[in-house]
Each structure stands twice: as C-alpha cells, then as structure tokens.
Amino acid sequence: MSESELQARAAELDRESQSEMSPRPPRPGIARRLGCGLGLLFWFAILLTPCALFYLAAKGEIRLQHREIPQPYAHPLLLVSLVSETDDRGLRIETSWIADSQGEEGLLCVETAVRFLLWQYSGGNQNVSFCDCYRRQDVDANWELVRTYGGVC
Q: pLDDT at position 51, please?
C-alpha cells in the first residue's frame, strides 16, 4: 500500500471512531409519549365536539345501550338528550349500571341516575336516582320486574 492510501485509511478509521463516540440524541421517554398521546386525544375530542352537537341538534339525543340488561331502552348506558320545554332548557344526562347481581338465576338490580344541565330552569332540584330490580327463574327465562324504588340500590 502506498503512503497516501494508508493516510486515507487512517483518516477513515478516525472518522468512524469519532462517529461512534459522539453522543446520540436522547430518545423521548414513555411519559412524554403518553402525554403527547393524551394531548392528541384531547385535541381530537375538542375538534369532534361540534359534530356531536350537530348530531344532538338533529336527532335530539345521543344514546349508548347496555348489551345484556333487562329493558335496555329504559336503562341506557349513557343518554344525552335535549330538554326544550317552556320553563326548562338544557341537557338531560342519564346513566345506568348494574348495582347488584346475584348470579345467573337470581336478582338483578339496575340503578339509573338522571342529571340535568340546564341553562334555563324553573327552579328546584330535578336530579333523580332510582333502582329497578328484576328476577328470572332460569337462564332462558325472561326478566320480570320485581320492584322499583327511588334512591340508590
């Protein structure tokens, strides 16, 4: 090998060793990635809010149903509806959940809470909670309403 080739090879090895020694930029941590992801979800929620409000204005309600519950239309997982009466105007938010379940062949109690977010109201507390309890004889039988009472289950 000639001297110029040796010098070129030495310079190349020197560059490689320096590039291996130079610090790499730090990678973003998991907390930073999680924060960016949550921020992005929050931003999309803000952007989709007008779509939800237009849907609510056109249909009058937004409803999410339970799958395996007696009378699912009477006990929605989430129901947001418009209140447009002469004295009251605003939103009605209804949620329900299984409060007590005693196996496949026992008693099933569903608690429902109705809350109002009113910007014009006639006065008084209009929020309410009630409990419906159902019973069935066996797995294939239909649920029968046993009792309904106000308040929590």
A: 94
Asked whether residue 37 falls in the same domain as residue 65, the answer is no
**Residue at 2: amino acid letter:** S
Domain end residue (candidates: 13, 35, 59): 59
**How far is Cα 19 from Cα 32, in angstroms, rounded to an integer?**
28
What is the DSSP track for 25-46? PPPPPHHHHHHHHHHHHHHHHH
How many domains in the chain? Answer: 2
The CA distance from 33 to 29, in Å, is 6
Looking at the fold, whether 38 and 86 belong to one and the same domain comes out as no
Residue 127 is which amino acid? N
pLDDT of residue 149: 87
Average pLDDT over residues 123-129: 84
Give the Cα separation of 124 and 122 in Å (integer).
Answer: 7
Which strand (E) or helix (H) includes residue 93? strand 89-101
Q: What three-state secondary structure class fits 118?
A: strand
Domain that holds residue 69: 61-150
Q: What distances in angstroms separate CA 136 from CA 11, 70, 145, 147, one per listed residue? A: 86, 10, 9, 13
d(CA 65, CA 73): 7
